[in-house]
Amino acid sequence: MPNEVIIKKITQLSVDTKLFTLAFKDKIYQGNFSFLNGQFAMVGIPGAGEAAYNICSDPSASKKFWEIAVRKVGRLTSIMHQLKVGDSLWVRAPFGQGWPKLKNLQTANLLLVGGGCGFVPFRSVALEILNDKKLLKNFQVKIFYGCSGFDYLIFKDEFVNWQKFFDVKLIFDKEKKLPKANKLFGVKCDLGLITKLFDLYPITSDATAFLCGPAIMYKFVLEKLKQAGVPDQNIYLSLERRMDCGFGICQHCACGDKYVCTDGPIFRYDKIKETELI
After folding, report:
1. Is pLDDT at 143 greater than 90 in this prediction?
2. DSSP string, 11-53
C-alpha cells in the first residue's frame, strides 16, 4: 500500500528536471527504510496517477531521506513540478533488482554509461563510492554521460567534486559549439553521440560496465564494449520499460518469461542477450 512522504527539499537540476528530497511521514517507517542502487519507487498523487522513478540518493543516508529526479513530460510530472516543500506524495518502495553490489564486482575498473535522463540511477552509485573510503580506494571509475544539450545536464553542480575522484566525460549531440577550453563545470566535453567517447577515451577489457539510457543507445554501446573485449558477464543494463505496478501483476512490462519490474530493471547482459528484452 502507498505510504505518505513529505517533500523536504526541491532542487532545479535542469530546465525540465527537479530533484525531490523525500522522507516518509511515519518516522519509524523512514528509520527502517533502505534500498539498493538501481531499485525504483512507485510515486504518485491521488487522482493524478503513479509512475516509476529511480531512487538516486546515497543508500547509506536512506534512514534519514531519499531522492528522486523528475523530468516534466506529462500530466503527473507537471503536477509534481508545481508542488512545494512540505507537500505530500504517495509512495510504494523499493522495488526491483538493483545494480550488483559494488564490493562483489570482479574488476577494479567501473564504467558508467548514461544517456539523457538515463544518467539518473548512476548518481546513487557515485555517491556510495564517494562516501565510502574503502570503495573509493578500490575502484577506478570512468563516467560517460551523453546529453542533448547544455541546458539538460543533471547533477552538474556535483561534477566538480566528482571529477576529483572519477574520470568524467560529457558529450552533447544537439549542440553546435563547445564552451571555452572544452569544459563544463570542470569536466571535459565533446560534441557527438555517446559512442564517440569510446574512441576518444579508450576503455580496458578488465572493466565492469553499467548502462542506462534510450534503447537505441544500447545497440551501439554494446558494440563498443565488445570491441574493447569487455566480457558479456561484466555488462549490466537497466531496462526501465512500462513498469506500472512494481510487482509483476499488471503484465505491462512482461517480455517473454521476464518481468522488468521484478526480474529487473537491472539485468546482466549475458543472461538476456538472446531474449526479447534485448
Report:
1. yes
2. EE-SSSEEEEEEEESSHHHHHT----TT-EEEEEETTTEEEEE
Q: Give the global pTM.
A: 0.95
**DSSP, res 168:** E
Residues 6+ apart with CB under 8 A from 56: 19, 67, 68, 69, 120, 121, 123, 124
- List Cβ neighbours of 45 (8 Å cut-off, separation of 6 or more): 76, 79, 80, 89, 90
Q: Tell me the CATH number for domain 3-94.
A: 2.40.30.10
CA dist 221 and 171 (Å) reads 14
Contact between 53 and 106 (Cβ < 8 Å): no
pLDDT tens digits, residue range 59-84? 999 999 999 999 999 999 999 999 99
* Class at the top of the CATH hierarchy for domain 102-238: alpha beta
Q: How many C-beta atoms surround the C-beta of residue 4 within 10 A?
A: 12
Domain ranges of the chain: 3-94, 102-238
pLDDT per position as a tens digit, 218-270 = 999 999 999 999 999 999 999 877 788 888 888 888 887 889 999 999 999 99
